[in-house]
Amino acid sequence: DLVKLHTTCCLFEEICQVSSPIQDALRFIFREFCHGLFKAFVPGADILQLTPFWVIAEEAASKLDGERQRGDEAVARANELETRVDDLEAEVLSLKAERQRYTGETQHHLLNRETVDLQLQRLRSQAAQLQESLNIKSTEMRELSAELSHTQGKLYSSSRELEHARMEAASTSNSLKEKDRQCETL
């Protein structure tokens, strides 16, 4: 107990103050005793302010234990971080592989897109040619339709003239037959 030690040292120091034939021996013993107990002891120092070696050693041991514990915790944390780094490296490799796969797929899609674009251009060109051909055919059909309408008009006129001519011929034939009958009756 530190309080009892300090009390005992103070009492021993007071005994050393008493005049006696062994006073010098007591002072020598007291100095050596204090040098053995206290780290920073110098004759005349206030003993109540000094700390014994074992208290310092206990504090150092306690600090050492604390530092060891912190070191163990640091090692455990370093191991956790190392594991996490390994996991992250594996994840990075996985992401790189996935990116590479997507890059390959993207290039494949781009090539497919280019192929589709070329086919689309060809189809557009063919559609334009077909449209042009359709326009030409449409123009030809209009011209033929106009010709057909004109020809039908002529045909209709001709058929009316023919009908009229037949009617005249029939009328003339009837009138000739009538005259022939009259001539025969005469």
Topology record:
Blueprint: H1 2-17, H2 23-37, H3 53-185
Helix pairs in contact: 1-2
Describe this structure as you would to a colleague.
The protein has about 190 residues and is mainly alpha-helical. Helices cover about 90% and strands about 0% of the residues. It is built from 3 helices and no strands. The chain has helices spanning about 1-15, 25-35, 55-185. α1 (about 1-15) packs antiparallel against α2. The longest helix has about 130 residues, at about 55-185.
| Mean model confidence by pLDDT | 85
H and E order: HHH
Summarize the amount of helix as a percent range.
over 70%
Number of distinct beta strands: 0
How many alpha or pi helices?
3
Largest sheet: none
| SS class | mainly alpha
Strand content: under 5%
Quaternary organisation: single chain
In short:
Helices cover 88% and strands 0% of the residues. The protein is built from 3 helices and no strands.
Supply the key terms.
0% strand; single chain; rod-shaped; 186 residues; mainly alpha
